[in-house]
Amino acid sequence: MNQIDLKDRVAIVTGGARGIGHAIAERMLRSGAGVCLWDIDAAALDAAKAELSALGKVHTATVDLTSISSVESAAASTIGAFGKIDILVNNAGIAGTNAKTWETDPAEWQRVMAINLNGPFHCCHAVVPHMLKNGYGRIVNIASIAGKEGNPNAAHYSASKAGVVALTKSLGKELATSNIIVNAVTPAVIETDILKQLTQQHIDYMLSKIPMNRFGKKEEAAALVAWLSSEDCSFTTGAVFDLSGGRATY
Ligand code: NAD
């Protein structure tokens, strides 16, 4: 594994209790960062902390990203534990229930937007002022290739991730002269529990579109996010990086 230097950096990873977020946290700890895992699932957070603590300093915050006050409390708890925040990885997200757009329950549409799009906005709202004060920051937003292409039976998810791409581009421009760099990653399919939320038909459809003919691994996502979170990533902001096994998008 090539070493990426995150020594003395402090990272928040939302949705860090499992899946891609857990792999990102592990990679960052191995690279020298202290990590605060934010997740709504307190039991999974405890398990992740027990597993990862041998690698470095791990703190956890139980948070509901749909609530700005919950996010503000988590940010305060992170600063209390580490004294600063250098890196924010907006990773938490849900797939939602697959359905045709016109058959999607409006409440399900709102739920997906609240977690996938409002969540990253709430986190940026709470954390960017601290980064501005410190004069340093790296923000990585986990969007999805669905946000660029659209996916049938997943308009809510696709629209929420398109919103994350636009949030990334807008914030990147706003912070371009502030030494705070903002980028997005657009994975195709990465093997995690999120796949359990999808129908087999939907999974087969997505696999059929990946030239490498396989799904990605969590560690492959973590490697890209770790680089985007490091000082080595210094002249690219508001950019979107495909993680898609050759699935080409604009
Ligand atoms: P996952 O389901 O394994 O983990 C998501 C985590 O987010 C969970 O620990 C969950 O408890 C947490 N979470 C959910 N709602 C929350 C809330 N309201 N507040 C705080 N935490 C909450 O998912 P994953 O597969 O690891 O996906 C991570 C990210 O990558 C998501 O944004 C997802 O949309 C994106 N993504 C995943 C894939 C894939 O194939 N796995 C593809 C493209 C994009």
UniProtKB/TrEMBL annotation:
PROSITE patterns, A to Z: ADH_SHORT
Protein name: SDR family NAD(P)-dependent oxidoreductase
Keyword Metal-binding among record annotations: no
Pfam family, one: adh_short
Keywords: Oxidoreductase
InterPro entries: NAD(P)-bd_dom_sf, Sc_DH/Rdtase_CS, SDR_fam
Molecular function terms from GO: oxidoreductase activity
Similarity section: Belongs to the short-chain dehydrogenases/reductases (SDR) family.
EC number: 1.1.1.-
Keyword Oxidoreductase recorded: yes
Enzyme class: oxidoreductase
